[in-house]
Design brief:
The chain is an alpha/beta fold. It has 2 domains: 231 residues, Rossmann fold (3-Layer(aba) Sandwich), CATH 3.40.50; 78 residues, UDP-galactose 4-epimerase, domain 1 (Alpha-Beta Complex), CATH 3.90.25.10. The chain has 12 helices and 14 strands. Strand 6, helix 7 and strand 7 form a beta-alpha-beta unit. This is UDP-D-glucuronic acid 4-epimerase.
Length: 340
């Protein structure tokens, strides 16, 4: 049975990936530090869905078996804990690693830069070293659409220049791509970076627009609409994202014409939606109008994202969830989760 480490297992994407891989009978070790960047109760509840009780999940450096799934274990660790990560790799001898753990958020990186250096740079280096020391067959890691910065050419394509990030978060993700390339070149570690484009869906992050808007509209509060609504995003439903990760995981890169075993994919819907249309979908799903507070664009934000997904589509990927359906599924989950 193939053994896979999934970091960020209590996070939005990591939780959904673990849930899928468990059903496909891989042996999964989930890792997360369960930090308080957003409500930890949501993170513990995700783990509970995976059969890990809060009392056991809360203990650092202790592996916890799932009560529901024989092929899932969870361990609470910080990526930047060099010794603990090294010991974990040496003990488990993972076949593959999916590194989704990171300090997330563009705006938060402006106020708390050191958190990003520790988690996204030091932590990622520890993952790379673990892969090198134990000869992991494939490392797949999360990058971000934010690396494109204020690129004017659309859709954003992987070969585009991404040397001008406009947030520290984006800079750390670009750094991850460079670090992965170096380790692929030096140590022949197959690495795949995925530039995620605005992921949304059930169990999503409370700091993301869909969560914030849904909560505010239900409560009758105003919503902050940045750039006066003149924004567009390549909103991508979580099920499509997981499908893309699985495809990428199943086909590790190989050396071709003296190139290193390294690659990057955009993973998005492939067509942007305006923020105004996105809000309209939420209003329709809730059957309630939003009170909009129009504001200027925020530092670190970009006005538009749009993914060129042709490379991943060539491997069988397709983004098939329309935004209306995806928003409806989130709203249904939100009401059930908060017992509204």
């Amino acid at each position: 049975m193939k053994k896979i480490l999934v970091t960020g297992a209590a996070g939005f994407i990591g939780f959904h990936l673990c849930k899928t891989l468990i059903k496909e009978n891989y042996l999964i070790i989930g890792l997360d530090n369960i930090n308080d960047y957003y409500d930890v109760n949501l993170k513990f509840d995700r783990l509970k869905e995976l059969g890990v009780e809060r009392e056991k999940a809360a203990i650092f450096n202790k592996e916890t078996s799932s009560n529901s799934f024989n092929n899932f274990k969870f361990i609470r660790l910080n990526l930047e804990d060099t010794d603990a990560i090294s010991k974990l790799f040496e003990k488990e001898k993972f076949d593959e690693v999916v590194n989704l753990a990171a300090q997330a958020g563009v705006r938060y990186s402006i106020q708390n830069p050191r958190a990003y250096v520790q988690s996204n740079l030091v932590g990622f280096l520890n993952i790379l070293e673990g892969c090198r020391d134990t000869k992991v067959k494939h490392l797949l890691y999360a990058s971000s659409s934010s690396v494109y910065g204020e690129n004017k050419k659309t859709p954003f394509s992987v070969p585009d220049n991404v040397d001008h990030p406009i947030s520290l978060y984006a800079a750390t993700k670009k750094s991850n791509e460079l670090m992965a390339h170096t380790y692929s070149h030096l140590y022949d570690i197959p690495t795949t970076g995925l530039r995620f484009f605005t992921v949304y869906g059930p169990w999503g992050r409370p700091d993301m627009a869909l969560f914030l808007f849904t909560k505010a509209i239900i409560e009758g509060s105003s919503i902050n609409v940045f750039n006066k609504g003149k924004m567009s995003r390549d909103f991508t439903y979580i099920d499509d994202i997981i499908s893309g990760i699985e495809i990428s995981l199943s086909l590790p890169p190989s050396k071709d014409k003296q190139q290193v075993p390294y690659r990057i994919f955009n993973i998005g819907k492939g067509s942007p939606e305006t923020l105004e249309d996105f809000i309209s979908c939420i209003e329709k799903s809730l059957d309630k109008k939003a009170h909009k507070k129009m504001l200027p664009i925020q530092p670190g934000d970009v006005p538009k994202t749009w993914a060129d997904i042709s490379d991943l589509k060539g491997m069988g990927y397709k983004s098939s969830t329309p935004i209306e359906k995806g928003v409806d599924k989130f709203v249904k989950w939100y009401k059930e989760y908060y017992k509204l």
